[in-house]
């Protein structure tokens, strides 16, 4: 009896020390859940979720302060992935999912005010004061944040054309046989 | 000498329908009025145009150059004038358009300068590869991978076996069969060049045993050219023996690792038609501007094989073969198992077009019956040549559970269609797998884009922070400087004032104008002062009492 108690106590002490050591030695600085959630978000930085960007939204989700269905660019895929990761119930998406778009500056109208450059969250607009601006299409996330600040309304969102490289095989549709 | 053969799992014995198109010899197709040459006919980066609209081009002239390592140039298939560089329908399952160069032919077939290599043995493998690259040769079996890339084994890997693929296992297709029958010499010559480029120890040419004429023709060619290093091996007819990994397994017993390349087991595999075009490019100086296309199926009156200029519209080729007849329900590029429906018959024949199947309703390869639920019979797993579990893949793909589909090795699927062929429930299994594959690629592409966007966003945030901090630091410094300046300024002023006062005092003292009326007062004056003081004190006392 006494041996058993001693043995268990000794084991408890040893493992306690081990765990304590591990907690100090392998301390994780940032919250891994935030990183995981952030990795799932589409990084458009559009703020349609009501937060200042994808990471703040990820932090809010991880803290349980925000719903998982607030990201329209991510669409249903992101909602389902987040539901799966966090063990929450999937919900229908708030707002509507739009096709992928890129910003296009009408170069004849642009006055070179740099307001859109300041609004772009990913530095995808090139230009300088009183010089024509242009969008680097490959870097544009389609967040639409540049549209509102433009004083001459020269920015337009255009849907990305499907090409052979981005084309997807459709989900097989099986016609339902009508029984007479 | 009998060659030992191995086997792969699964596979099917399919009705070949090959006699339909082997009755007549290869005939040259007519030169079309317009040639449409898509810039991307291969795997890799699209080629970059070298000509402008209005330019006159010679037959065989390079009109678009390869961009990057994995890419292939495009050549004018006939002489004429460039009339457009624009988006045109291309043969692709999507039915989308792609950038293409359109040439109006002049019918003169005026060749540009051809530079044949007199003796390929005098060239080192790398120079030989460059000749092959500049000839725009890609794998003609169907995938269209640039041939010169596959002829570069890398510096650390020795190539043991060069496998030439003449299996042609898919029903209806006979272009390689006819090529082997009629141009065996070209294939053997090409094989020699390829072997030299690869420095391969041996070369095996695998042909399915349902093509005895081709096997005989190749044997004769080897004899004629007294070539003893190349071996023609008949392999059992079983679909999909013509799959690269399957043929390597059958001929060498080696299994190419999942998602690996044949070079990992010391093997390089090329199609026989690719070998023939390598011969033409090196020894005749002719780039890849034509290929043999099987035009077959119930939808054409005169099926057969045609040597077609790359860029010929499919519709014209069909017309030449007496089609399309009203019986045609679908135009398929490739065979009924692995081909895809061409939605726009105006699309051109490209380097990878091995067969045009003008299929009647019965020939499309689609199952006739209604689609029923999966009953988990396991027939698909038995038929799978890659030993996958198509039914599991089907469930996961259908549920869009792509992680699980990948766990079940979705990307090892070669889309041969055996599973769908045997499925008693008529499930379109391959469609599900193709859907899942492209969906996963899209997700990966988006993930990559998201990662770049995140990085750019974080960099921007950091930059804004840094600029803010720098601005604050600058302000602080400025303020500090200003404060320092001001502080020293007051001291100066004070000192100046003090000095001025000193000077004034000294001046006054010198001038002796100091008022001296408080000293040496008279009695009366003293009294007056005392009275005034007393009044002041009284008034003060009265004031305080009033206040109280």
Explain the overall architecture.
The complex is a heterodimer of chains A (180) and B (548). With 180 residues, chain A is mainly alpha-helical. Chain A is built from five helices and four strands. Chain A has helices at residues 2-25, 32-40, 54-62, 75-86, 115-119, and strands at residues 101-105, 125-126, 134-135, 155-159. Chain A has a two-stranded antiparallel sheet with strand order 1-4. In chain A, strand 2 (125-126) and strand 3 (134-135) form a beta hairpin. In chain A, helix 2 crosses helix 3 (54-62). Chain A is flat and about 90 Å long. Chain B is of the alpha/beta class and 548 residues long. Chain B has a six-stranded mixed sheet, with helices on both faces. Chain B has a four-stranded antiparallel sheet with strand order 2-8-7-4, with no helix packed on it. In chain B, helix 2 (125-134) crosses helix 5 (184-198) and helix 5 (184-198) crosses helix 8 (272-283). Chain B is elongated and about 160 Å long. The mean pLDDT of chain B is 90. The chains are: A mainly alpha (180), B alpha/beta (548). The A-B interface holds A 38, 41-45, 53-54, 77, 121-124, 139, 141, 162-164, 166-172, 174, 177 and B 40, 90, 92-94, 96, 98, 370-371, 428, 431-432, 434-435, 437-439, 442-443, 445-446, 449-454, 456-457, 459-460.
Mean pLDDT of chain A: 89
How many individual β-strands of chain B? Answer: 17
Spatial strand order of the main sheet of chain B: 1-14-13-17-15-16
- Largest interface in this structure: A-B, 27 and 31 residues
Q: Percent range for helical residues of chain B?
A: 25-40%
Tell me the span between the first and last alpha carbons of chain A.
Answer: 80 Å
Poorly predicted residue ranges of chain A: none
- Along the chain, the helix and strand elements of chain A come as HHHHEHEEE
Determine Rg of chain A (CA atoms, Å).
25 Å
Count of discrete alpha- or pi-helical segments spanning 4 or more residues of chain A: 5
Strand content of chain A: 5-15%
> Which strand order spans the largest sheet of chain A, edge to edge or round the barrel?
1-4
Distance between the termini of chain B: 140 Å
């Amino acid at each position: 009896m006494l041996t058993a108690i001693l043995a268990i106590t000794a084991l408890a002490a040893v493992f306690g020390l081990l765990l304590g050591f591990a907690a100090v030695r392998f301390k994780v600085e940032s919250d891994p859940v935030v990183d995981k959630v952030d990795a799932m978000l589409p990084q458009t930085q559009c703020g349609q979720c009501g937060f200042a960007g994808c990471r703040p939204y990820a932090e809010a989700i991880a803290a349980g302060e925000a719903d998982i269905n607030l990201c329209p660019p991510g669409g249903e895929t992101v909602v389902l992935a987040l539901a799966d990761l966090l063990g929450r119930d999937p919900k229908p998406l708030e707002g509507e999912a739009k096709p992928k778009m890129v910003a296009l500056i009408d170069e004849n109208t642009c006055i070179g005010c740099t307001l859109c450059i300041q609004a772009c969250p990913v530095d995808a607009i090139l230009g300088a004061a009183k010089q024509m601006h242009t969008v680097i299409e490959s870097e544009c996330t389609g967040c639409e944040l540049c549209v509102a600040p433009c004083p001459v309304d020269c920015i337009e969102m255009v849907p990305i054309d499907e090409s052979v490289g981005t084309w997807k095989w459709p989900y097989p549709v099986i016609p339902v046989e009508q029984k007479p | 000498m009998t060659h030992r053969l191995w086997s792969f799992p699964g596979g099917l014995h399919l009705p070949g329908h090959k006699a339909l198109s082997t009755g007549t010899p290869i005939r040259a197709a007519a030169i079309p009025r317009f040639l449409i040459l898509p810039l991307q006919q291969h795997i890799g980066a699209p080629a970059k145009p070298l000509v402008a609209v209005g330019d006159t081009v010679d037959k065989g002239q390079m009109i678009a150059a390869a961009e990057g390592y994995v890419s292939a140039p495009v050549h004018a298939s006939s002489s004429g004038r460039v009339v457009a560089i624009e988006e045109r329908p291309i043969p692709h399952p999507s039915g989308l358009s792609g950038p293409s160069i359109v040439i109006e032919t002049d019918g003169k077939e005026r060749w540009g300068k051809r530079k044949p290599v007199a003796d390929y043995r005098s060239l080192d493998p790398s120079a030989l590869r460059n000749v092959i690259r500049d000839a725009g040769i890609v794998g003609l079996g169907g995938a269209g991978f640039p041939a010169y890339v596959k002829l570069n084994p890398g510096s650390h890997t020795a190539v043991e076996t060069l496998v030439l693929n003449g299996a042609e296992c898919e029903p209806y297709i006979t272009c390689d069969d006819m090529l082997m029958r009629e141009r065996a010499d070209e294939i053997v010559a090409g094989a020699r060049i390829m072997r030299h480029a690869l420095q391969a120890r041996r070369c095996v040419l695998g042909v399915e045993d349902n093509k005895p004429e081709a096997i005989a023709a190749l044997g004769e060619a080897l004899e004629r050219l007294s070539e003893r290093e190349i071996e023609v091996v008949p392999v059992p007819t079983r679909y999909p023996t013509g799959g690269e990994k399957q043929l390597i397994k059958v001929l060498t017993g080696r299994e190419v690792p999942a998602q690996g390349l044949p070079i990992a087991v010391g093997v390089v595999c090329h199609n026989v038609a690719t070998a023939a075009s390598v011969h033409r490019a090196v020894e005749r100086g002719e780039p890849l501007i034509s290929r043999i296309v099987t035009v077959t199926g119930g939808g054409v009156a005169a099926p057969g094989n045609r040597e077609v200029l790359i860029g010929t519209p499919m519709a014209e080729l069909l017309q030449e073969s007496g089609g399309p007849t009203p019986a045609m329900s679908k135009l398929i590029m490739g065979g009924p198992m692995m081909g895809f429906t061409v939605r726009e018959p105006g699309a051109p024949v490209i380097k990878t077009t091995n067969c045009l199947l003008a299929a009647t309703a019965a020939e499309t390869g689609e199952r006739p019956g209604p689609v029923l639920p999966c009953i988990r019979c396991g027939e698909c797993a038995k038929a799978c040549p890659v030993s996958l579990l198509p039914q599991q893949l089907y469930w996961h793909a259908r549920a869009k559970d792509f992680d699980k589909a990948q766990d079940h090795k979705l990307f090892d699927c070669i889309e041969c269609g055996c599973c769908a062929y045997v499925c008693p429930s008529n499930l379109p299994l391959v469609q599900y797998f193709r859907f899942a594959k492209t969906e996963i690629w899209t997700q990966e592409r988006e993930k990559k884009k998201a990662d770049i966007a995140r990085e750019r966003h974080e960099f921007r945030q950091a930059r804004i922070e840094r600029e803010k901090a720098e601005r604050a630091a600058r302000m602080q410094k400025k303020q500090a400087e200003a404060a320092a300046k001001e502080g020293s300024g007051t001291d100066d002023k004070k000192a100046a004032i003090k000095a001025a006062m000193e000077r004034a005092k000294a001046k006054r003292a010198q001038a002796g104008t100091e008022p001296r009326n408080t000293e040496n007062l008279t009695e009366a004056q003293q009294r007056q002062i005392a009275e005034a003081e007393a009044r002041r004190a009284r008034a003060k006392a009265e004031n305080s009492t009033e206040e109280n």
